[in-house]
Design goal:
The structure is a homodimer. By secondary structure, the first copy, chain A, is mainly alpha-helical. In chain A, 65% of the residues lie in helices and 10% in strands. In chain A, strands 1-2 form a two-stranded antiparallel sheet. The structure holds a DNA duplex. Chains A, B: InterPro entries: HTH_MarR-typ, MarR/SlyA-like, WH-like_DNA-bd_sf, WH_DNA-bd_sf.
Chain lengths: 148, 148
DNA sequence: CACCATCGTTGGCAGAACCATCAATCTGAG
DNA sequence: CTCAGATTGATGGTTCTGCCAACGATGGTG
C-alpha cells in the first residue's frame, strides 16, 4: 500500500541553501572517496594545488588562497611533510613565516590526485553538457566570490 | 608591496565539487545564523517543514524525506518536543513507530523560521534574477536527485 | 623604544554525517 | 501458526570540518 516515495518537502526542495548543501554532501562524498583511495583528503589536495600553481608559500598565504583556517593548514602541512610531498622550512626573510615547498613526489602525487578527482567530477556530473557545467561553475562562483 | 590578492588556485576555482562545497559553506553560514537567531537549526526546520506538508509522520519517514539519519532525527524531535513545537506519541497501528505531530506553536514557529530563512536566501542570492535562481535550482536538483 | 599586526602552533568547540548495535515489533514465506 | 528477516526508535560512538581563542615569537611603524 505504502509506496516509499521519499518525497522531499517543497520547502526544502526549492530552498537554495538546502539544495546547495545536499549537493555538497554528494560532491564531497565522491571526491573524498576518490582522495581517500590515495590516502589523501581535500585539504591536502588544496594545499598541493596551491603550491604547484603559486610556488613556495607561507602557511598563512596557503590558508588564505584555499579558504582554510591557519590552524587547519598546520595539520595538513604536517601530514604532507611526513609523507614527503612537501618541505617545510623557515623563511630567511621573515622569522615568523615558514616556506612550504612542494617536492617532486608531491607533484607526482598531485597529478594522481588530480586524475581521480577529475574522475569524481565526471561521476558527479555524468551526462552533463559542457555548457551546463559552465553554467553551474558560473553561478556557484557568483555565490562564492560575493563581496558584501 | 604585497597586494593581498587571495587568488584561488585554478585547480580549485574550476572544480565543481570544490565550488559546491564553498557555496555550501556560505549558504549554511547565513541560514544557520538566521535560524540560530530564533533558537533553531537546520534539522529542526527540515522536520517542521516535512510535518507541515505531509502531516503526522513516523521518525523514520521524517528521516527519509529530509535525508537525515534516524539517529539524528531522534535528537531533533527531542528538542522540538521539549520546546512544544511537536508532539510525540505511539503509533496505535504499529508498535514500533512513533507518530510525530506538529503543534500550533510549531506551525507558528515554522512560519517565523520560514521568514528568516527566506531572508537569508535573498541575502545569499542578492541581485539574482528569477531566471538565474531557477537555473541554479534546476542544476542542483539534478545533482541531488541522481539515481546511480 | 613602544605599539600593533602577523605568523605558526596548540587546544578546543559545535555541528554534521554516519555507523553499529540493541530490543521491540511487524511482515511474509512456508 | 511459526519462524526468519526486516523495520523502528533509541543509544552511543566516530570522524571530519569549519571555526575560534590564545600564546610566544617576530616584523613593521610610529
Amino acid at each position: 500500500m505504502e509506496i516509499a516515495e521519499h518525497k522531499t518537502p517543497a520547502r526544502l526542495r526549492t530552498l537554495p541553501s538546502w539544495l546547495i548543501n545536499q549537493a555538497a554532501i554528494r560532491a564531497n562524498r565522491v571526491t573524498d572517496q576518490a582522495l581517500a583511495d590515495l590516502g589523501s583528503r581535500r585539504h591536502h589536495f588544496a594545499m598541493l594545488a596551491a603550491l604547484e600553481e603559486f610556488g613556495p608559500s607561507s602557511q598563512a598565504d596557503l590558508g588564505r588562497c584555499t579558504a582554510i583556517d591557519r590552524s587547519d593548514v598546520v595539520a595538513a602541512i604536517d601530514a604532507l611533510a611526513e609523507q614527503g610531498y612537501v618541505q617545510r622550512g623557515p623563511d630567511p626573510s621573515d622569522g615568523r613565516r615558514n616556506v612550504i615547498t612542494i617536492t617532486a613526489e608531491g607533484t607526482g602525487h598531485l597529478r594522481r590526485l588530480g586524475a581521480v578527482v577529475a574522475a569524481a567530477q565526471d561521476e558527479l556530473l555524468r551526462s552533463w553538457s559542457a555548457a551546463e557545467r559552465d553554467t553551474l561553475l558560473d553561478l556557484l562562483t557568483r555565490i562564492v566570490s560575493k563581496v558584501p
